[in-house]
Amino acid sequence: MIRKLSRSIREYRRDAMLAPVFVTCEVILEVLIPFLMAWLIDRGIEAGDMAYTVKMGLILVAAAGASLCFGVLSGMAAARASAGFAKNLRRDMFHHVQDFSFTNINRFSTSSIVTRLTTDVTNIQNAFQMLIRVAVRSPAMLICAMFMAFRIHSTLALVFLAALPILAVGMYLIVRHAHPIFERVFKSYDRLNSVVGENLHGIRVVKSFVREEKEMEKFGGVSQAIYDDFSRADRLMSFMSPLMQFCAYGCMLLISWLGAKLIVAGEMSTGELMSMFSYIIQILMSLMMLAMILTMLTISRASAERVVEILSETSDLQSRPEALREVPDGSIEFQDVSFSYAGSGKKLCLSDVNLKIRSGETIGILGGTGASKSTLVQLIPRLYDATCGRVLVGGRDVREYDLEALRNQVAMVLQKNTLFSGTIAENLRWGNASATDEELRHACHLARADEFIDTFPQGYNTRIEQGGANVSGGQKQRLCIARALLKKPKILILDDSTSAVDTKTDALIRQAFLEEIPDTTKLIIAQRISSVRDADRIIVLDGGKVQGVGTHQELLASSRIYREVYESQTKGGEADASHATA
Question: By the 8 A CB rule, do 111 and 197 touch?
Fold first, then answer.
């Protein structure tokens, strides 16, 4: 785990190494100050030697100033190293997530990935800063102060050693019981993010159904669970400080009692006893910092494990080392294809699919809800891999292609059309970053998006809000179609992507496809038969199986399912017309 996380330090390794060096220098100087103070008292003040007193006073001031400088330098180096480490860690995680398949993302959930990229990385950043500064300072201070205490009076210093086993056992028991609680807390954070994200994403539905109170109740339940777990963990961790103070102040009382006797017996000077008290305070502060470090490390350990889970996850979809980078044409073939989201032979969404689609064909795909129409087309650009069988594009198995090369030749307009915050032009250039203004206008003309873009005062520079909240569903669909066309793909997949446009606009878009991109293979998933009736062939899916393939007329004669859908839609249209006439 530590080795995997340490790879993200990279260019900040120098600062990460300098911080402990500066801290060590700071500690050495701090530990020397009480020793010098003892000489000042015993050889200067008590001896009445003013010259020696002034000399030692100046040395003490210089030592304190140097200690302060090293402290500032260590703080600056630790801050740079920890902030840089967190930046790199977030970048590495985000880049790694970009390679995830949908299966990988579903395994973690979106809210969990967000929590790991934010809260968990912040916890690791804080722990790392402590490790390279405080975690070096505390043990170094403890060891150096103990060494100096033994140098002053070895018998008296044995009091410190007696307290160490008590501290070690107490800390171990506290951390052992607190760690599982923090693991549970971060899983609760995942649920909290999920509730908030779901609520904000569907806020219109929440308000239209007046479900605000129910959503607040759901949020309150998760929030209360986090509060309860954190309170339980904090109660456990709170025992750390009293344990430290008990041991430290117990040592102070014993040393005061024993030291007084040694002074009376003439075995110890007043300056040495004063130094011992200074070392007690330094040891006390070291122990207090150790308690703080252990608390932070206990919290961050759970976070580190969650982050490493992301970094260690291997995408289910990988390009082969010698992957093909050229897609010859837009031909598609399904050979005995079965698919399950569970990744096994159980609960198949597609079963024994055999299809052959020629390059440049226009194929309609029709079927009821749950017929696995979207699943079928998502196998073409390898958004998922077939569980059984093979999917071929350009005569080669899709698994033989480089993922980027394959997906660059397959443009998809999904059911859930997504636009990003930015201008219309910026959204369109997702399809082709180097597209000219003329190419943008041409693509929008084919998708019939220019009709409404030209009505906006700022035209293609009109700002799109997050998710396309300031454009209608039909406008969003046409922008997404234009964006896909800018890729100039060999295969174009429209997954029910004209459902929000009127039939006339739908027909114009299909006519433009026929005239402008005849060599592109076009797969059109639709609910309306009018959207696919002019296709070269129509595939009828039912229950994940192909129930019929043919032209509109052929399917009317041979497919009961297609005929029933056609009759229900045409009769509905006649009934609507009669009602309108009446």
Answer: yes
